[in-house]
Amino acid sequence: MFIIRIARNRSDDLRVKHPYNTPMPLRFIATDCGSTTTKAIMVEKREEGWRLVARGEAPTTVEKPFEDVTVGVRNAIRELEEITGIKLLDENGNIIKMDNPTEDKGTSVYVSTSSAGGGLQMLVVGVVKSMTAESAARAGLGAGGRSAPPMTCWSPWPSPPR
Fold this sequence. Notes:
The protein has two domains: 24-114, ATPase, nucleotide binding domain (Nucleotidyltransferase, domain 5, 2-Layer Sandwich); 121-152, no CATH class. 19% of the residues lie in helices and 30% in strands.
């Protein structure tokens, strides 16, 4: 529930339900996968308002030898853990997501973006080429991605690589 301050007297506050009846997030973790560096930030709700608590970074791991962008994401989040002392990853490397994170564990929300030059490579698929597949391709390009030609259920399947 959000509280909108409309008067100095707390009894006059206007109480507004949070959309979708979900609890108000208390901690956010956001990562950005760039061409060379993956950045992570932690933002928390405090008495005085929202505060940037920590920032971590690690090399982006989309190319060899890792070829897995999540390795760099986990490394950047581990740096947040080291700076703050808050456990954010479980023993399997998954983000600990909780409605009410504690002082030493978890996050309410995790989001990730990509600012890598050239955008992410995407494959878009639709039912009809002139409608859904092209719309999906436009949406992907609008998000900064690089798209292969759209495929539909009527498209010939590409030959397997040799």
